[in-house]
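User: I'm new to structure prediction. If I give you an amino acid sequence, what do you actually give back? Let's try with this one:
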Amino acid sequence: MMDEMLLQERLDQFKPEPLIENDIDSTKENIESYVIQEDENNIDLAKTNFLNLLNNEEIQKSCEGIIRKYGVGTCGPRAFYGTTDVHLKLEQCIADFLGMEESIVYSYGFVAISSSIAAYCKKKDIVFLDKEANFAIQQGVLAAKSKVVYFDHNDPKSFRNEVEKVTKTERKPTRKFLIVEGVSWKTGKLLPLEEFLKVTEDHKIRIFLEETYSIGIYGDEGKGLTEHFNIHPSRLDMIIATLESAIGSIGGFCAGSQMTIEHQRLSGSGYIFSASLPTFLVQACMESIKCFGDKPKKLRSFAREFHGFLEENCGFIVESDPDSAFKVFTVSNEKFRREGEEMIHRYCKDKGVHFIVKENGLLINLNVVLCDDEEKLQRIYHAIKTASSLFETSFH
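Assistant: Good question. You get back a string of structure tokens that encode the predicted 3D arrangement of the chain. For your 396 residues, that looks like this:
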């Protein structure tokens, strides 16, 4: 047997190479973080509580009843003691809501996106991807090891050009996939879905639509881009989304044909190996969908009003779609853009109006409840307008 001193010496000498390169300089200690206390002095525009369902007492009571019956977790993956009748009801609820044959629910939104992509796209396949594709999509394609062909952001002409280039040069037909976001996580721009569908149908390309920031917002019933553009869901191979934005819970789902979904029950790593979504959170999703009502329509109207305020009253450049529930915007002065954004963010934070400053601009997540709270809304408008005026005075 190896003595303890020799073992410890060898352990000390063991310095394995990292599995991936980490080029991030920031540490946990120097990343700014703080808790927003939602009260009369603070307004939270950072949280993705678009339809105000996180504060719904009826949903909370329903979840409490589920906890008393099922406990707080199943302690197992879906295929191993992790599936309850409530999980199956949610999957049917989502499929019926979106007009798809079936759906599958994952316990984590990020994994729902990445796992569903990796379950279908393989090494020999070609995946067409937007240059601004979100991180979850990129990780799914990375896991699949497929060949990736990028096209310009939300540009169907650029997509068609790339498809035609690939078609001309390939020696034999190859499986092709298009993976797009209904509303971009990065820019908030709306996908011109019909134009992309024309290309995929012309060239027999499978299309996966990621709808995290469009379901619950677009379409009068909140069904997303298919309802918004009056497109039959059967024209899409798969709709993927997290349950962590408008629906206000945890997890994610994929919806599609019976064959498409059944394949994931055997090939979706996040479904097979992760503990299932706690049953009370499953219940929260079902209750949230029932509570949509006229909220999507009301929220889009508010989003357009807020969009106009940012552009016309404050002079900001707003990148996101007018109907988008989250606003990505920046100052018009490119020379002092970063300094201006940080100054505006800091000023509003001091005034109790909290939102996010990112690399590509400022980000505000709207809440439909603000439509009926004129006092809070005017506080938001006043803080942002004053901050923009101070920036113009300081940096003009």
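You can read the tokens as a compact description of the fold. Here is one thing that stands out. The mean pLDDT is 92.
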